[in-house]
Amino acid sequence: MSDGHQHNGHESVPGRQRRRFPGISSRAYEHPADRSALVALRKLSGFDTVFKALSGLLPERSLRLLFLSDSVRVSDRQFAHLNDMLRDACYILDLQKVPPMYVNQDPNPNAMCIGLDEPIIVVTTGLVELLDEEEMRAVVGHEVGHALSGHAVYRTILLFLTSLAVRVAWIPLGNVAIMAIVTALREWFRKSELSADRAGLLVGQDLQASMRGLMKIAGGNHLHEMNVDAFLEQAEEYESGGDLRDSVLKILNVLPRTHPFTTVRAAELKKWEASRDFQRIMDGHYPRRNEDGDASVRDSWRESASAYASEVRTSKDPLMKLVNDIAGGAGDLGGRVRRGFGGFTGPKPASDGPPPSGDEPPRDNT
């Protein structure tokens, strides 16, 4: 916990007491779908060598030079308060090597962690000016979480495959096959953002600050005009509102994105903070990184499948409800689809008598 002393070269930020997580594995906070992909990738022989080579083919080295030459590097002499936050985040998550951090002139609030071998963190001036100290602490923790997990591998593979898709576009079905993989990688990438949000909460240990930061990223620096509870109600309305047409549109809207929608991130983080998993970590019960080599790929994929099944089972989205009903053997499927599309397929003909034997009356799915 932060106590104002130096530990392993990390000078902690003075202030309230925060728990520290010595030797914590990124598996402790990773979303199951993110964790299963990373565990599998780490098991691949020569994984580091191959993807570091791929990284060298991409503009990563150029980006490093660009930020070094045209941004401000965070240190004890420049943006000292960010430097304190960075060192404290690395101390709390026990990341031995503090990654370089840069502030880039850009009015758009943004932050990123790039690099496989030696990750660097970049935050924009728009983000620094938008967030208060505790909100910013969560963002720095988010990026340190990316570094600890090695999430830059997703970015590297995505860039490589996107570039490859353009080159093989002339091959019949070649582009389609690669873009199918890219779509799956984007799904993993979105889940990695949920993982990093959790890491940010472990660093900041202030759920309200994390919520405010996400809300400001969505709505700007007008905190007096916004309300966290109302913001979370938006997430509820987004998930459960509309009919099957809206469900399809939500899928189409999210497919090209590498980040989940902001209200969804807020709702997911709040749900995780209330979970037993979060409480166990805060109590000091979590997997250690020296055990990462023993992690089972099969168990990780099983947990990932279970997480997706749970999402479908508990979701209030109309399409997910329909899928759940189909899995449960619900009757009157055609009627459910018609009602799901809000009459889009046309009105159901009136009946003079009771329903035929075997049909069941409509169930309340609210």
Q: How many DSSP-defined strands? A: 6
Give me the Rg, rounded.
Answer: 23 Å
Give the ordered list of helices and strands.
EEHHHEHEEEHHHHHHHHHHHH
Give me the number of helical elements.
16
Low-confidence stretches: 1-14, 343-352, 355-366
Helix and strand content put the structural class at mainly alpha
Largest sheet geometry: 4 strands, mixed
- Described by its quaternary structure, the protein is single chain
Shape: globular
In percent, how much strand structure appears in the residues? Answer: 5-15%
Average of the residue pLDDT scores? 78
Name the helicity range. 55-70%
Alpha-carbon distance between the two ends: 44 Å
- What's the arrangement of strands in the largest beta sheet? 3-4-6-5
